[in-house]
Amino acid sequence: MALFIIGDVHGCFYTYLKLLDYWEPKTETLIQLGDLIDKGNFSPLTIKLSFEIKNTFKNSVHFLRGNHEQMMIDHFQKNSTPFNWLHNGGAEVMQQFDKLNINPSKYKSWINELPLFWGNDHVLVSHAGFCGIGDPFDLKNGNNVLWSRRRTIDLNKTQVIGHTPLTDERPQYYASSRTWNIDTGAYKGNLLSGIKLENDETLIEHLSVPTDPRDIT
Which of 161, 191, 197, 212 is deepest in the core (most CB within 10 A)? Predict the structure, then answer.
């Protein structure tokens, strides 16, 4: 099956729905690279929909952990970190849960179990990318695959990342490290983007939809 990889959604639920219209479940594996939550107006609905998609399609769908999911996990587990989720969008998200009468506890276990990456022999997907400094999976390493904003290194396969919003609003390819960045700043009112690749990393197309005003106003 081909791969359809979606970038940082950040609670932009209606925009997310529009991009999902391009997914072909019978022929494509869906991968979302983290940061479903915070910043936009509908984080609870975004989580709820993603949870239901995963339960429906099982092994043909993969949701990854982003740094915002990690901050949420740390908040609920009362982990000591330099990042306070409530000060980084979490307070608004909890208000959204209350307003929609959705219990976040239903999704805590699922969010806690989100993996840090997905990969095959030709493609590697993670939230922030592999920069070669320290253990990329060590949550105490500020240059890990959740937080790094450094240039990615060549891992002899195509990397697909998000985390750092692009300034020109379109997915960018960095040939030196064979990396696609597909974070096009949906929460900023720009675009939500995805990319379709063959399993052997051949590019099929990249897709972008404008942010729905309902998601940010």
Answer: 161
